[in-house]
From TrEMBL:
Coiled coil: none annotated. Gene3D superfamilies: 3.40.190.290, Winged helix-like DNA-binding domain superfamily/Winged helix DNA-binding domain. Residues 5-62 form the HTH lysR-type domain. Belongs to the LysR transcriptional regulatory family. One of its GO terms (molecular function) is DNA-binding transcription factor activity. This is LysR family transcriptional regulator. Pfam families: HTH_1, LysR_substrate. The keyword Iron-sulfur does not apply. PROSITE patterns: HTH_LYSR (PS50931). It comes from the Bacteria. It comes from Rhizobium leguminosarum. Keywords: DNA-binding, Transcription, Transcription regulation. One of its GO terms (biological process) is DNA-templated transcription.
């Protein structure tokens, strides 16, 4: 029955048509003449009629054979297109918009973009920096690299790394103000802090846990 049509038999049929003989197809496929004849007969049984007529000048397509050839070529073209589409998925190319925070872009991504461009010359990367959450679901960006997991059930989120926070000071500052030896000494020092209402990442707002009333020299987002 046609429901049990075998694509391999259709491919063999196309080779028979293109070689214009069973012998030529057998030679092309590196199988015996009887194997090609048997599989051709099986295909004819499946479609319910003769596909070729054997004459002294070679094989001639019957009306059913002509229809089968055309449909088989359509399937062949579709399979080849699918194979091409799937293989092209492995190629890194096209335009990708990456959104992230300014700190990540400046301190982490900037030095790596040159290498990325060299490895994937057909990749057109658009880098967008924003202190707010970028709505990937609304196509504001293709990727969003952030310190926190964005909200949205339709988003595919992956943890790609972790970061640590700490206290840092310039050598000049420490020479002027001394190096704190214990947590209590920090109350005598000045800090660069965050503008709290503009910060979405609560994990960076830890200074007051260490210093109840820190002296803030200036704040930023």
């Amino acid at each position: 029955a046609i429901d049990h049509l075998d694509w391999d038999d259709l491919k063999l049929f196309l080779i028979v048509v293109r070689c214009k003989s069973v012998t030529g197809a057998a030679r092309e496929l590196k199988v015996s003449h009887s194997t090609v004849s048997r599989r051709l007969a099986r295909l004819e049984y499946t479609v319910g009629g003769a596909l070729v007529e054997r004459t002294k000048d070679g094989l001639l397509l019957t009306p059913a054979g002509l229809v089968t050839m055309r449909r088989a070529e359509e399937i062949e073209n579709g399979v080849n297109a699918l194979r091409s589409d799937v293989s092209n998925r492995d190629e890194i190319c096209g335009t990708v918009r990456l959104a992230t925070m300014e700190g990540i872009a400046t301190l982490y991504l900037s030095e790596r973009l040159v290498e990325l461009s060299s490895r994937y010359p057909d990749l057109d990367l658009e880098l967008v920096t924003s202190p707010q959450t970028v709505r990937v679901a609304r196509r504001e960006a293709d990727l969003f690299l952030s310190f926190f997991k964005p909200h949205g059930t339709s988003l595919d989120s992956q943890l790609i790394g972790r970061f640590k926070t700490g206290l840092f000071a310039s050598q000049a500052y420490l020479e002027r103000n001394g190096v704190p030896s214990q947590a209590a000494d920090l109350s005598e020092h000045r800090f660069v802090g965050y503008i709290e209402e503009l910060i979405q990442l609560e994990s960076v707002l830890w200074l007051e846990e260490l210093v109840p009333t820190p002296k803030i020299a200036f704040s930023s987002n």
